[in-house]
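Changelog note: in this version the structure field was regenerated for every chain. One regenerated record is shown below for reference.
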Amino acid sequence: MPDDHLHALIGDLYDLAIGGGPERGWQAILESLAAMVGAQNAALHRQGPPPARPSILATLNIPPETARAYREYYFNRDIFLLRLRSGQRGNTFFSQTYLTDTEVEGSEFYNDLLRPSMGNAFYLAGGQAPIGEQTLVLGLHRPREMGPYTPDQMASLQCLWPHLMRAMKVEEQLLSSRTLGQIGYAALDELAGGVAILRADRRCIFMNRAARRMLLRRGGPMVQSSGGRLRLLQPSADALFATLLAQATTPGQTHRAGSMRCATADGGLALAMMMVPFQLPMPDLPPVPGPLAMLLVSDPNAAPAISLVDQVMAMFGFTRAEAEVAANLATGLSVEDVAMTRGVRLTTIRSQVQSLLAKTGTNRQGELLRLLLALPRIDCGDDAEGF
């Protein structure tokens, strides 16, 4: 293959690794590889530690049933890989250099798979290298009548192989980063507290589910423009919001946190909001234009998705009756209100409160409430039914 074709293929490899490249992905890469070395069939697969079966990434001119048979049975009988010497692992290899024709002819792999199902595929050019916890294996087959691979074809594959490995590792790292990012986003969506990341111009670049529900729900206190900018509907509250954002993001000033309350349209307790400066902790990330601020939001009207009764029974060994009293207190009811709600004597509730204090190691009812309200919570979504 001329140098310009080889260089174009190398470019396609790196483009594909970062999300671009040929429209048909690794299938197109295999076609170009096969053309480069004069191969008739090609396959690219990952192999985990035994006894894991290989995961086939792409094939060329290999029937689906043949690929399935290889994955389920013949990969353990692949004479080309079984006979590789230790020095060839991690590099390119060519079967003609370490297997005789007689050895290939006598193998189950050739007689039962390659000859009947892959056009008498006989000679193999390929490569093998670790990618993460798995091994990447490339196989390029040609029929016996075409003869062994030529020195020029072998040299072309040897030149391309390091680039293929680097491209696969780049793709692996990017996929891992995206996966970790998605895990982080999903975890933030489970939090009961609202979290949003804002630019200085009010544009929101991230908002978790709880923040969206508290702030942007129908009838909520905030709206978001088509450009992503946030604005509180109440003018005086919006002016304070702008001041807090400027304090957190204006260059040349001492950045500091600021807090405010935000009334809700349904007449419930006001939302609590805190604006704090936010810096990306990883310097190798792509830069985000301008300073950032993190908006934290809590809703005192919200109820946890996990029953507080079950939670405190598990954590503190409360009886169910004690746990129900604790849940009542956590909603803001007084001891007298709890007794009336539960239809029991006030002395009974006071006795249960004393038991709650003893089991939690707290000394006063205020300490008990602070402990209960500080327990881990997840987002209750729109289906919360209270404690």
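Spot check on this record: The longest helix spans residues 151-190. Confidence is low (pLDDT under 50) at residues 383-387.
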